[in-house]
User: Fold this.
Amino acid sequence: MKVTEHINKAKGETQFTLEILPPLKGQSIHDLYAVLDELSEFNPPFVDVTYHREEFEYKPVGNGLLQQRTIRKRPGTVGICAAIQNKYKIDAIPHILCGGFSKEDTENLLIDLDFLEIDNVVALRGDAVKNETYFTPHQYGHSYASELVAQIAAMNRGEYLDKELQQPHATNFCIGVSGYPEKHMEAPSLESDFHFLKEKIKSGAEYVVTQMFFDNKKYFEFVRKLRNAGIKVPVIPGLKPLSTLKQLNTIPHRFHVDLPEELIKAVIKCKNNTEVKLVGIEWCIQQSKELKAAGVPFLHYYSMSKSDNIKAVASQVF
Assistant:
């Protein structure tokens, strides 16, 4: 079922959803099952599964030479989505990236997802890999998420890269994209970021999932500006409970997110990460309750494939 159909079916009731990471290469899917088993009592209508692009490492081969080796540390997104839909009978939503993919790669991935009867995708540009200062697109791929959205929307109309196909099958994906209440870290301004989000919507995106935020005012202002710009698609808030003292620095640096002063002071008072986790859970509970009272369609939790703090929040909200 499409995300937009889940919203209509809920008739205004806020629903619980989450995002998970594929396990590291060589690890079992059963750890993910344990997370989903713990959180299935909250009846998520769908689960997002992240996609992780290739990374490069350089191995010495003698004589002072290095050999570039391509690795993908968290493979398995498509297989995980198929497994979740088969085991839990809920929709699994794969993330699709521009980075590391040619247009042909993307088309073949979408064909596989269509064969698996996966109804939703989230289209993302993706981040730069470790050896890049800035994001570098695939030579034959997309530079922007709006271009990726346009390719998916074209396949929904039965338009493939090979224009000579006879009576090609039209896919039927519901396309989600990311939104940044405090702007993308590479955007020169919030207004320019809004421009690119509007381009993604014009290209065919049907809903927005936000980057994490810790101040609900930022979300409400973001939605207000979208509505004033004539953008009516659902905007799903993304939430993450703080769990370590280190995140006071890493989250603002990595995600261009401001932490409220009240939250910062509460975390600084903590003696260890156990206390930080309790502060983070309580803050996220209050965020969730306020957003739910405002009638958001979903509360979407970034779980990092761990269930304990997400369950603590959800048990007080749903």
